[in-house]
Amino acid sequence: MNRVVITGGTGLIGSHLSTLLAGEGWHVVHLTRGGTKRKKYESFHWDPDSGYCDSDAFMEGDAIVHLAASNIGRGRWTKARKREIIRSRTVTGELLFNKTIGAGITPSVFITASGVNYYGSEISERIFTESDPPSEDFLGETCRRWEAAADPFREAGVRVVRLRTAVVLALSGSALNRITAPARAGLVVKLAPGNQYFPWIHIDDLSSIYHKALTDNTMSGPYNAVAPHQVTHDMLMGEVARQKRLPNFLPHVPVWFMRAVLGEMSVILTTGSRISSDRLSATGYRFRYPDISSALRAC
Fold first, then answer.
1. pTM value surpassing 0.90
2. What is the CA radius of gyration of the chain?
3. In whole angstroms, what is the distance from residue 92 CA to residue 68 CA?
């Protein structure tokens, strides 16, 4: 039986992926900061802040999926918050390396999450590919360091896959629920300027992409985990209005207001780039939800 150790296994992506893999016959193991008893999956304690991880969690030839990271959308980006965001993505990777390769245990593959924010916060018609360099802004630097934490595994001869993930669409627990929350009250609220691109992917596709990365030994390096149908924020909200049969007449919430409320973090909502999924498609992966209409209907 294939064995996979997942960090962040109880989050949105981790829980869906765990269900998929368990259904495929995988032995799913979670690393958890909380208690390890009465869990759905075999669980071992870890505390990256103190540098602790139960060594019994790992076995030779394990697959490792590293999802644990502090949510960039939680709280204003103070200096302390920025340090926490970056540290949660770097210290964890270092700890996993020390407890595996550093202890003489070699994983079969190391898959790390990353974000399409790697390419920066801007609005343009340019289509970014995996060969583009990271942006020098905060989000770009965060993703660069996040991915760099996997480099020691690659240097040790382990196959490493980096999945630069777009906004995840899901029935519950996703950013989509917050963005479209006013629609539950019959309102479609659009965010200025409106032409910012909204890279997205449905949770079912993302889980399947992780599954493919685990089982396809030809996959290595970075991949943009983003749906091929690229939409702007206005296109997204227009489709929400159409499917829910809501009027779509309200003016945009201005950028200055978003900055006043959210500070620098507002760039997550007021900017957005076009991201190519061609390299992922070249692996043979076929999207279950390639367009925004079908994805929203499934949410």
1. yes
2. 19
3. 8
Angstrom distances, CA of residue 30 to CA of 33, 59, 88, 108, 213? 10, 13, 17, 17, 18
Looking at domain 3-297, its CATH class is alpha beta
Q: How far is the C-alpha of 284 from the C-alpha of 212, rounded, in Å?
A: 10
Q: For residue 94, which of 46, 60, 136, 138 has the smallest C-alpha distance?
A: 46
Q: Pairing relation of β-strands 52-53 and 42-47? A: antiparallel
Using alpha carbons, select from 211, 199, 129 the residue that is nearest to residue 169.
Answer: 199
Enter the tokens of residue 246: 């809501």
**Long-range Cβ contacts of 233-238 (<8 Å, 24+ apart):** 233/190, 233/191, 233/194, 233/195, 233/196, 233/197, 233/198, 233/272, 234/190, 234/194, 234/195, 235/198, 235/292, 236/179, 236/198, 236/200, 236/292, 237/180, 237/188, 237/189, 237/190
Q: Give the separation between CA 258 and CA 255, rounded to whole angstroms.
A: 5
Q: Which of 205, 213, 184 is nearest to 294 (CA)?
A: 205
Beta bridge partners of 7: 31, 66
The tens digit of pLDDT for each residue in 21-60 reads: 999 999 999 999 987 676 799 999 999 999 999 989 999 9
Question: Other CB atoms closer than 10 Å to residue 17's CB: what's the count?
Answer: 28
Burial bucket for residue 249 (CB in 10 Å: 0-12, 13-18, 19+): exposed
Q: Which two tokens stand for residue 201?
A: 């992917």
